[in-house]
Amino acid sequence: MSVTYKCPNCGNNVTTEQQVSNLTCPYCGNSYNTASNQQPPQFGGNQQGQQQQQQYGYQQQPPYGQPQYGYQQPYRSNDVFAEGPSGKSRGIAALLAILLGAIGVHYFYLGKTTPGVVFLVASLLSCGILAAVTSIIGLIQGIMMFCMSQEEFENKYVNPAVSFPLF
Questions:
Q1: Distances (CA, A) of 100 to 28, 115, 143, 156, 166
Q2: Residue 100 and residue 50 share a domain
Q3: Who's near 14: CB < 8 A, 6+ residues apart?
Q4: Which domain holds residue 11?
Q5: What are 81-102's pLDDT values in tens digits?
Q6: pLDDT tens for residues 141-162?
Q7: I need a labelling partner for 99 at 20 to 30 A (CA). Which of 10, 46, 139, 162 fits?
Q8: How far apart are CA 5 and CA 19, in angstroms?
Q9: 56-87: buried (b, 16+ CB within 10 Å) or exposed (e) per residue?
């Protein structure tokens, strides 16, 4: 005869072969009293780790074997070279804008081919006159990319409302 208990911490059903008074949830590692449904005091371990996860904005991972829909790995907005949710690094885009901004390489990296082609054609066909202008624009964009957060970068350059994101 199997008995099913509901973990008061994570809400998952835990099935045992026989009725028990104390149970440790295999999903969250929480120990609790099944008779009174009260949790015994924890010493360090999971409860402290969960408080740290909540404090730093990390989401709890689903239990093993459960679908991972709706769970996202957090990204650090203070790490310039970390990839964001789109898979694009604002540090790499900023370096490309500063070093090769005159020919629009940073736009190609971000998947914006129209502005990339415009910068490339403007630099090549103007015999260097517009290359100075496009390189200054690229320099300004690169500095802006280094200074903004990952969310601002995603909204302004990766998923913009306009098809030609300048400033």
A1: 49, 14, 13, 19, 15
A2: no
A3: 4, 5, 6, 7, 23, 25, 26, 27
A4: 3-55
A5: 888 888 899 999 999 999 999 8
A6: 999 999 998 888 988 998 887 8
A7: 162
A8: 9
A9: eeeeeeeeeeeeeeeeeeeeeeeebeeebeee
Flag whether pLDDT at 114 surpasses 60.
yes
Residue with tokens 């730093």: 56
- CA-CA distances (angstroms) from residue 13 to 9, 24, 65, 66, 154? 11, 12, 13, 12, 39
Query: What's residue 132's pLDDT?
Result: 87
Angle CA 72–74–75, to nearest 5? 130
Tally the domains of the chain. 2
- pLDDT (mean) for 46-55: 46
Residues 104 and 46 in one domain: no
